[in-house]
């Protein structure tokens, strides 16, 4: 435990406006724990305590994979004296389609993809010289694709396996990808690398989260305009207006409406059931929840929070 350390952690879920929220908090004066990098994945590695020890005041880490990694959640608890955890939700169909489009725009090693993942060129140079950073942030080379190094570090796979997973992803249509992932899950009991579905199973991940951390330190939110002020009050951060629109998916890799129809046919019933289960779970804990159920399953809205 690092005495006096304080941190806000946006632990999930990707494609749920987490980048917009992180930008808002940075603009409000909360610095990123790793300057210039929203998602350093620092708490997947033992180097986290050294980086936290040299930081001062309240910092922000927006690594959305933490919600899927109990080892990362344990490091947060063991390292940061005063932590707040935020989980962002979105309609699961929209989230899955957005993940597909985002991965396609991010996988190729373009300047924009590198900047979005590892920061600008000067940030990357500074990270490469910083002995406290884990290997994936100090790498001068990022492999065949932008995410090769990241997949190696986060998922513990070799470079060739990471490259093969990315190559396969780029060759599949959206419908082919959904079929591939559901078949893989049935066979192996888990989703493959670069899964567009894994972070859409909210109830499953929330159960694991609440078993690992104190629910009173967790806020679960749909970042719709009516709930952003409530989240800021819970964090003790001044509300200054609507969230910015950051990190929108780009490209022409799919017809969005066709993709929604495919995803609804394949996963709609499961996602609707999980929305109900997630809401039931939230109502049984003392976490702060700012949830618009119209966003998730067109049912009902609720906002409840303990006193700050």
List keywords for this structure.
308 residues, alpha/beta, Rossmann fold, 6-stranded mixed β-sheet, 6 strands, globular
Produce the secondary structure layout.
Blueprint: E1 2-12, H1 18-27, H2 48-54, E2 58-61, H3 70-79, E3 80-89, H4 92-107, H5 111-118, H6 121-128, H7 135-138, H8 148-155, H9 159-171, H10 174-188, H11 202-212, E4 218-222, H12 228-235, H13 256-283, E5 288-292, H14 293-296, E6 301-304
Parallel strand pairs: 1-2, 1-3, 3-4, 4-5
Antiparallel strand pairs: 5-6
Protein model, in words:
The protein has 308 residues and is of the alpha/beta class. It has a single domain (2-304), classed as Rossmann fold (3-Layer(aba) Sandwich), CATH 3.40.50. It contains 14 helices and six strands. It has helices at residues 18-27, 48-54, 70-79, 92-107, 111-118, 121-128, 135-138, 148-155, 159-171, 174-188, 202-212, 228-235, 256-283, 293-296, and strands spanning 2-12, 58-61, 80-89, 218-222, 288-292, 301-304. A six-stranded mixed sheet has the order 2-1-3-4-5-6, with helices on both faces.
End-to-end gap: 24 Å
CATH topology name, in short, is Rossmann fold
Low-confidence runs (pLDDT<50, min 5 residues)?
A: 298-308
Structural class: alpha/beta
CATH superfamily: P-loop containing nucleotide triphosphate hydrolases
Number of helices: 14
Short structural description:
The chain has 308 residues and is an alpha/beta fold. It is built from 14 helices and 6 strands.
């Amino acid at each position: 435990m690092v005495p006096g350390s304080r941190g806000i952690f946006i632990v999930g879920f990707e494609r749920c406006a987490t980048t917009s929220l992180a930008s808002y908090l940075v603009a409000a004066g909360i610095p990123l724990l790793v300057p210039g990098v929203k998602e350093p994945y620092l708490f997947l590695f033992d180097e986290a305590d050294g980086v936290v020890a040299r930081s001062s005041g309240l910092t922000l880490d927006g690594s959305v994979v933490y919600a899927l990694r109990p080892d990362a959640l344990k490091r947060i608890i063991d390292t940061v004296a005063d932590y707040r955890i935020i989980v962002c939700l979105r309609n699961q169909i929209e989230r899955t389609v957005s993940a597909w489009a985002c991965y396609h725009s991010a996988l190729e090693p373009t300047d924009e993809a590198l900047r979005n993942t590892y920061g600008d060129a000067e940030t990357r140079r500074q990270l490469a010289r910083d002995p406290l950073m884990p290997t994936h942030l100090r790498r001068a080379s990022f492999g065949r694709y932008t995410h090769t190094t990241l997949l190696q570090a986060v998922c513990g796979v070799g470079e060739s396996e990471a490259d093969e997973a990315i190559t396969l992803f780029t060759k599949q249509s959206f419908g082919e990808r959904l079929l591939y992932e559901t078949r893989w899950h049935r066979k192996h009991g888990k989703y493959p690398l670069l899964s567009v579905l894994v972070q859409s199973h909210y109830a499953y991940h929330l159960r694991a989260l609440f078993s690992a951390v104190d629910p009173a330190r967790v806020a679960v939110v749909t970042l719709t305009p009516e709930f952003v002020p409530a989240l800021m009050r819970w964090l003790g951060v001044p509300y200054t207006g609507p969230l910015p629109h950051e990190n929108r998916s780009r490209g022409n890799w799919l017809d969005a409406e066709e993709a929604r129809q495919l995803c609804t046919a394949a996963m709609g019933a499961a996602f609707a059931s999980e929305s109900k289960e997630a809401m039931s779970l939230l109502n049984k804990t003392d976490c702060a929840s700012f949830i618009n159920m119209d966003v998730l399953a067109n049912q009902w809205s609720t906002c409840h929070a303990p006193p700050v």
